[in-house]
Amino acid sequence: MKDLFFSDNPVAISRISAILEAENIEYVVLGGHASLLGGGIPVIQSRVMVESDQHETAIALIRAENLENDVELKA
């Protein structure tokens, strides 16, 4: 698995998760509970990961939806 993005924005994570699910791209959100408990502290971010062979496709989908400014992409 490879890092896709980091974010402390639950709305952006939810929106991108829906996009990935619509395209049947499997993903994992790590640190989601810590991010929620932190109350939006920017130091505590959730990390979203995808399979390495789907990473470029996932990046392209995020950029196509103009969401790259809402998260910290790991291109």
Ends: how far apart? 13 Å
Q: What is the tally of beta strands?
A: 4
Widest sheet: strand order? 2-3-1-4
Radius of gyration from the CA trace?
11 Å
Low-confidence stretches: none
Number of H- or I-type helical stretches? 3
Q: How many domains, as an integer? A: 1
**What's the CATH superfamily, by name?**
UreE, C-terminal domain
CATH architecture annotation = 2-Layer Sandwich
- Please state the structural category: alpha+beta
The oligomerization state is: single chain
What is the general shape? globular
Q: What descriptors fit this protein?
A:
3 helices; alpha+beta; Alpha-Beta Plaits
Describe the structure.
The chain has 75 residues and is of the alpha+beta class. The chain has a single domain (2-73), classed as UreE, C-terminal domain (Alpha-Beta Plaits), CATH 3.30.70. Helix content is 39%, strand content 23%. It has 3 helices and 4 strands; from the N terminus they run E-H-E-H-E-H-E. A 4-stranded antiparallel sheet has the order 2-3-1-4. The longest helix has 13 residues, at 10-22. It is globular, with a radius of gyration of 11 Å.
Please render the helix and strand layout as text.
Blueprint: E1 2-7, H1 10-22, E2 27-30, H2 32-37, E3 46-50, H3 55-64, E4 72-73
Antiparallel strand pairs: 1-3, 1-4, 2-3
Summarize the structure.
The protein is α+β, with helices and mostly antiparallel strands. It is 39% helix and 23% strand. The two termini are 13 Å apart.
